Amino acid sequence: MISLMIVAAFLQAAPEQARAQLGPELTTTPSSIFTPTPTETPTLTPTETPTDTLGTPTPTVTVTITVVPTATVDLTPTATATFTVTPDPHLIEATAVPSTSQHQVFFPLTLFADFAAITVTEEITEAGTITDTDQLSETIDYTPTLLQAEGTTPFGIELNYHAANMGKVAAANASYVRVNALDWTLVEPTPGERRWDAAGLDAALAQASTLNLKVVLIIRGTPPWAQKTPGSVCGPVKTEQFPAFAKFVYDAVVRYSAPPYNVKYWEIGNEPDAPANTTHIVWGCWGDTKDYYYGAAHYTNMLKQVYPQIKAADPQSLVLLGGMLANCDPVRPPAGQNCSSSRFFEGILRNGGDPFFDGVSFHTYEYYTRVLGKWGNTNWRSAYNTTGPVIIAKARFFKRLLSTYKVTGKFLMDTEIGLLCSNCLASHQHDLAKAWYIPEAYAAAMSEGLQAAMWYSLEGWLGTGLIDSNWNPLPSYHSFKIASQKFGSATYVGRITSRDVGGVYGITGYKFKQGNRIVWLVRSADSLRRTLKLTTVPTSITDSLGKAITPSKNPVMTLQPVYLEWTTP
User: Model-level pTM?
Assistant: First the structure.
C-alpha cells in the first residue's frame, strides 16, 4: 500500500517541483549565505478597491493590516543552507541561452523516475543573536476583493484520490478542495468529442458540493491534435486551436458550474511556468526557455480567448492563473541560479493579461532540516528564524508586480503549500514538524490577505501527507483542523511584538480576533526557550496539537507554536 501511495502521489498534481528547487544542486553542493537586512523598509503599499466579483454587496470597510517583521538581528547573523542532492540516474538537466537576451536561463530538472530516488539534505545553521522583534513595520492598506462567506475559512487541501477521501477533507474543517484535474486529453481525444465520463470527476465534484467544499478545479492537458510542441501533453496549445480549447472550457463550465457540482473556481493549467517537455506529467510546462518572459505571451493569448468563454458560461465563475512555481526570486537570485521562469507572471501583465484572470495562484514549499521546528527555502531567502514562511516572500513578490503594473481587483491563492523531506516518507518526527509548521503557514497566509491556501496534499508527496498509507489521520491532520478552528474564521490583527509580551525579545507570532475571542499564535523565534511576561492570564493555552498547557502570565516559548486565547467581556 505504501508503494501504491507513492506512485499515486507521483501521478497526481505535482507541487513546486524538486526539478525547479533542486536543479542547481546536482553538479555542485553550494552553501548560500543569507544575511538579513532587518532595518530595510518594505516599499509595497498597494491599495485595492473591492470588486463585487460574486454578486455580493461591495464591502465599505477597509481593513488596515500592520505587518511587523519578526526579528532584528545583531552580529550580522546568517542562515546558512547546505544541500546535498543525490539524483536518480534518470534525472536530466539542461540549460539554454535565449537568442534574444543576454540572460542565461535555468532549465529546471525534469523528473522521469520515482521521486523517492532523490535524497535531499538541508541544514540551516544559526549565527548571531536575535535581540528584538520590533523592526520597522510595514503598513498595507488592503481591502479584500472577495469576502469569505459566513463560516468559510481560507483553509484548503488538495485531494489526490478524489471521492474516496473527500469526507476527510471536510472533516479537517477545510473550506476549499483543489482537484487535479479536468484533463482535456481525456475528454476530447479527437476534435469535437465530449467524453466527460473519462475524466472521472463527476462523483468527486458532486460529493464536494454536498460537503459544502469550494472546489478549485484545474483544467490541463493538451491532446495531440492541439499541441504546439508535438508530444507534449502538458505543453502549450497551438494558436490555431485556441478557439477549440476555449469551446471545451465553455462546455466544461456549463456542465460543472451548475448543480450538482457547483464549481466556481477554475485554474487554467498547473505550473505553466515550468519548461516545455514531452514527458506525460501532471504539471504545466508552457515555459519557453528561449523567451525572456518564459512563454508568458502565448499563455496570455490563450487566456484572452478562454476567459470570456468562462464568463459567458457562468458569470459567477472565477478564473485563476495556473499555479506558478516561481521557483526563486528573480530580483535577488540565489548564487548560481537564474530565475528566468519567475518572470512568467510579469510577462502576463506586460502582454495585457490582467483583464483575463480574477486571481493569482502560486505555490510555496519549505524544506525540513531534520531538526524539529527548523525549516527554510533558500531560493527565496526564507527561514524559520529570519523571515518566517516563504509564503510571505512570494505573496509580496506578486503584490509588488500587481502594484507596479497598477493592476487592482485581484485576489491571491496559494494553491500548494508543503513541508518537503524526500526521505522522510514514514518519519514521525517529520510529521511532528508538519504539525508545527502548518499553523504558522496559514497564519502567514492570512496575514498577507490570501483568499485561500491549499495544503499539498491530503495523501502527500515527499512526505507532505496529512494521512498515512492506510488513510488514517496523522498528527499533522489534527494540527490543520485545530488551526482552522482556532483562527480560520477570525480576523488577522497584526504581528506579535516585544511590547505585547512584556519586553521579551526573540518572539514571533500572529494576532487574531473573532467576536469576543482574542487568539495569538506564538513561538520562540530561535532555539532558545523564552518566558513571556503577559499582563493578563490567558483563558487557555494549547499547543499546535491541542494539548492543554496550564494558563499563566509567564508561559515558556519554544520552537513549537502555541495558542494563547482570551475571552473578553
Answer: 0.78
